[in-house]
């Protein structure tokens, strides 16, 4: 109904060249209104709206039919994400290969994604999701994986199951707008899908700009609003190749990657299972060395055990919850550093030649009050890091007393309470 009212108002105003106020001004309200003309205008507007709506339906059908004609897809994309109140944009390049597979009842195909920043490989094969991390010489397996590989608007699941897009557009609970537009000089269709607010107060909007030549996205964006933040996730697509993916070559490559980076163990895709695979409360904190980012001087964890309560935060720049945790950790350290608290941000991901320049820019835009320590990926393995951010609290005896994965305000309040207890 909202869509009908908005579009009808727009068409009526456009055809008459005035809004209701303009209409009253032109007719001076005292003059007799030509009811035949007014009725005609309403009729024309309604017919145009109906034709437009029919065109929208036809467009969606054409897009779905076009997608279904292809067996495979290869493309590159650049992901940008940022918060409305954030200080910068994080950029990550990906390369994607997708092949339909009717034997896969969960997703409907085989998917390979290369993250060309970190670097790592994401492989989806018949329900199993492998996260191969070459710097750590390991892979993590998640069974029955249904989450997005890159983003909800990454087009992977739409290609494998085009009916998803049609259902989202036709769902009466969603507010959908379809318009013609021009993007980078090319004629495109713009599809905006606004989803109803969830029970936890989150609202989402998907926007796709599709080329009219191949009905695949040139640009897409996810906008997510909560009571605290507005998060944007933009994707820029390029270098499309249709029906040229060799599934046999990908399978051979998968075999080699998993041989070089063996799967540690099967992991259920849940936060609980990931917490179970972390270091546990009472474990001795593994000792390690690194370098202070600011001075490049040597760092040894052992130098701080015995006198300090220590927080170690495993993080990297291209991780939104990691970035969101930085101000909270800075505030925490500033408040309690005089009472013996030490906070160290441990980074093995950005500790490579191609990413150190980005890290420098990243840190210059933030007022991080605690030290950043550059470490080797082996330290992540020692601490059983399987997601970011991962935070541990180490007491003065060198033992793990708190372990957490991810970041949100509620979890962090428990984290702060434990630190305050240890510092009493």
Largest sheet: 12 strands, mixed
Helix content percent band: 25-40%
**Regarding CATH, which class of the largest domain?**
Mainly Beta
Q: N-to-C SSE series?
A: HHHEEEEEEHHEEEEEHEHEEEHEHEHEEH
What is the tally of helical segments? 11
DSSP strand count: 19
Structure summarized in a few sentences:
By secondary structure, this protein is of the alpha+beta class.
Report what the structure shows:
33% of the residues lie in helices and 32% in strands. By secondary structure, the chain is an alpha+beta fold. The chain has 3 domains: 2-66; 70-267, Lipoprotein localisation LolA/LolB/LppX (outer membrane lipoprotein receptor (LolB), chain A, Clam), CATH 2.50.20.10; 278-423, Glutaredoxin (3-Layer(aba) Sandwich). The strands form 2 sheets. It has a 12-stranded mixed β-sheet with strand order 7-8-9-10-11-1-2-3-4-5-6-12. Strands 14-13-17-16-15-18-19 form a 7-stranded mixed β-sheet. Helix 1 crosses helix 3. The longest helix is centred in the N-terminal third of the chain and has 34 residues, at 35-68. The protein is globular. The model is unreliable at 1-33, 44-54 and 266-270 (pLDDT under 50).
What distinguishing features does this structure have?
424 residues, 11 helices, disordered N terminus, 3 domains, Glutaredoxin, alpha+beta, seven-stranded mixed sheet, outer membrane lipoprotein receptor (LolB), chain A, twelve-stranded mixed sheet
Layout of strands and helices, then pairs:
Elements lengths: L1 H15 L3 H8 L7 H34 L3 E12 L6 E11 L8 E7 L4 E6 L2 E6 L4 E5 L13 H5 L2 H8 L4 E9 L2 E9 L8 E9 L5 E9 L4 E13 L4 H14 L2 E5 L3 H6 L12 E4 L5 E3 L8 E6 L5 H17 L4 E7 L5 H12 L6 E4 L2 H6 L7 E5 L5 E6 L3 H15 L1
Parallel strand pairs: 6-12, 15-16, 16-17
Antiparallel strand pairs: 1-2, 1-11, 2-3, 3-4, 4-5, 5-6, 7-8, 8-9, 9-10, 10-11, 13-14, 13-17, 15-18, 18-19
